[in-house]
Amino acid sequence: MIQTLGFSGTQVGLIYGSFAIAGLISPFISGILADRFFSTEKLLAFFHLTGGFLLISVSFLEEFSWIYLIILLYNFLYVPTTALSSSITFHHIEDRTRDFAPIRVWGTVGWVVAGFSVGLLAWETTTYPWWLAGLSSIATGIFCFFLPKTPPSTSAKRRSLRALLSGGAGDLLRNRAFIVFIIGITLIRIPASFYYSFVNPYLYEIGVPNPTGKMALGQLAEIVLVLSVPFVLGRVGLKRLLVLGMFAWGFRYLLFALGDPEAGMWMIYAGILLHAVTYTYTSLVGQIYVDESVPVELRASAQGFMVFLTTGFGPLIGAYLAGAIVEHHTLADGTHYWWGIFLVPAVVGIVTSFGFALGFRPKKVT
User: Fold this and answer.
1) Alpha carbon distance 60, 226 (integer Å)
2) Of residues 130, 2, 123, 10, the one with CA closest to residue 61
3) Residues with Cβ < 8 Å from 55, sequence gap 6 or more?
4) N or C: which end of the chain has fewer CB within 10 A?
5) How do the domains of the chain map onto residue ranges?
6) CA-CA distance, 268 to 105, in Å (whole number)?
């Protein structure tokens, strides 16, 4: 978009920001549809098939306004698939602690394969990634028709939407532990926003060679850690893993701030590898907690709410704060005072982890 179409940084930012806008709205709608009206596998098929054709259509466009509109529509279809995929998985596995992680890890594998494929084929400045993504989405949509049948909950269909919101959801809002979880998982998206938006420019600026490739090490480490969740969760406990993941989000920024491309390079590597701890022990373990905390008839809606917090509301707050902090610490020559920048996410992550440790006392409601 920048090198080939000549879009400005602001325009590219708006296109990427459409993901968060979709995350504010579409998970709720899709969750209600799956819980009350349509089979989950059919919804997934519709979202992926329609989204695939939208992605392919982008390859024929050059105007910012049209590309932004199509990508925004696509994200409204794509964002709910995360929650619906988790919902259908939890519905059919026997043991969420044992079985979810070995299935979920393939999402990370796909992420790594896609990134390395586009890089190795040198497709970054071409339209081929749109075709790769679009055809993959269409193939996924066809595959969804062969997923296990997952019709709407009978009890949810019998109850009015108002009854659902005032019943099962009301129980959750009276669950102190769930409220603490909501606050914690939202606040922790602030340091996450700093990582996704500004760690790559930071590594470039301080002279770390091949920063994109080095950051991919975090996803590779994530694969290993995700597979360990069934063994670790039962021994360490859900609360300790959530606290550890939140603490790691803050601690890694101290490592980045103190590191350098020479003697302190080990700190930068450690901060990158901690991505496995931050994601696995907040997002993935958080999904397990949400599933075990809600009534069955609210499973899709609850996972949609998790997506709303982690891809919509939380990232919007984090992106706005991160942008303001980075702008405030931009020096006259265009470089940045990274210690001052990274101090903010470090404090937010560490303070959130301690507050969460004191206030979170999980209790199942199912």
Assistant:
1) 38
2) 130
3) 74, 130, 131, 133, 134, 137
4) C
5) 9-359
6) 25
Q: Nearest to residue 54, comparing CAs of 71, 38, 78?
A: 71
User: Rounded to a whole number, what is the largest CA-CA distance in the chain?
Assistant: 64
Angstrom distance (rounded) from CA 62 to CA 66: 8
> pLDDT tens digits for 220-254?
888 888 888 888 887 888 899 999 999 999 999 99
SS3 60: coil
Q: Nearest to residue 147, comparing CAs of 81, 96, 101, 76?
A: 81
- Concatenate the DSSP letters of all residues of 70-102 into one string: HHHHHHHHHHHHHHHHHHHHHHH-S-HHHHHHH
Q: At which residue do the structure tokens 């400005």 appear?
A: 8
Cα separation, 30 vs 43, whole angstroms = 8
Cross-strand partners of 172: none
From 188, 227, 231, 171, select the one nearest 357 (Cα to Cα): 188
pLDDT at 70 over 90: yes
Q: What is the pLDDT of residue 172?
A: 59
- Predicted pLDDT at 193: 81
Give the CA count within 13 Å in the CB-facing half-sphere of 124.
8
pLDDT at 179: 85
Q: Is 6 exposed, middle or buried (0-12, 13-18, 19+ CB in 10 A)?
A: exposed
What six digits make up the tokens of 273? 């590898």
Convert the pLDDT of each residue in 28-66 to its tens digit: 676 667 666 778 888 899 999 999 999 999 999 988 899
Angle between the 40-58 and 9-36 helix axes, to the nearest 10 degrees? 160
- Give the residue carrying structure tokens 């969740």: 229
Q: Is the Cβ–Cβ distance between 211 and 203 less than 8 Å?
A: yes
Sign of CA dihedral 183, 187, 193, 199: negative
Q: Which of 130, 143, 144, 145 is nearest to 53 (CA)?
A: 130
CA 153/CA 190 separation, integer angstroms: 35
CA distances from 84 to 92, 152, 215, 244, 298 (A): 13, 12, 28, 27, 12
